[in-house]
Write a structure and sequence with these properties.
single chain; 79 residues; mainly alpha; 0% strand
Length: 79
């Protein structure tokens, strides 16, 4: 089963913020009260987290929850 594109994009943002803070998956998991395996699943787009989980991650990363959302794709130009 392939990962959903939205979940892959969310996972990339979680990983980007984690690496910016220089946290290992284990450190982020501990701060967010999640398991290291679950962090890995999220970063690979293999799990669809609940809103509560996103709040936990945002607090652990010291970012707003909206910052975990992937950037909006550029609108296609019509000529």
């Amino acid at each position: 089963m392939g990962a959903d594109e939205d979940l892959l994009a969310l996972g990339r943002e979680i990983r980007r913020h984690r690496k910016a803070k220089k946290f290992s998956q284990e450190q982020l998991a501990e701060r967010a009260e999640l398991t290291r395996n679950y962090i890995g699943y999220l970063e690979r787009g293999e799990r669809n987290p609940r809103a509560k989980t996103l709040f936990q991650l945002a607090r652990a990363l010291d970012v707003g929850m909206a910052e975990l959302m992937p950037p909006k794709p550029a609108a296609a130009k019509t000529s």
